[in-house]
Structure of HTH cro/C1-type domain-containing protein:
Amino acid sequence: MKTPIDTMFNNVEEFFASPANTEEKAWGVIHDFYHLVLTYMEAHQISKADLSKRLGKSRSAVTQMFNKTPNITLKKMIEVADAIGMDIHITSPQVPREQARPKRVPTLPIAPQDDLSQPHTKRSVVA
């Protein structure tokens, strides 16, 4: 007869033995991102107050971003990384690093008169 502790141990073993689902993987990526950002900020003596100024957000908004249940977009991740001067890349252990990076990231030059701070303005491409 199994005791409750044996059953609990088996449940924990099964949980960690099963592959992560999509939501668990997403939370893992978000957790890794926050860890990288906080580690970089500490190493470069950037406070959350500094980050809030750089992002143009309130200190409480930045604190909530790190302390509440996170739901952060890839765009927001890039915005935060750029604000602290950290470059981030997506990699996979299944793809060798030299094959994972494109030789050149295609970019479109933006005309100088365009206001990039306005998300809904039509931007013209310089030929």
Remarks:
- Residues 114-127 have pLDDT under 50 and may be disordered.
- The domain at 4-89 is CATH 1.10.260.40 (434 Repressor (Amino-terminal Domain)).
- The CA atoms of residues 39 and 64 lie 18 Å apart.
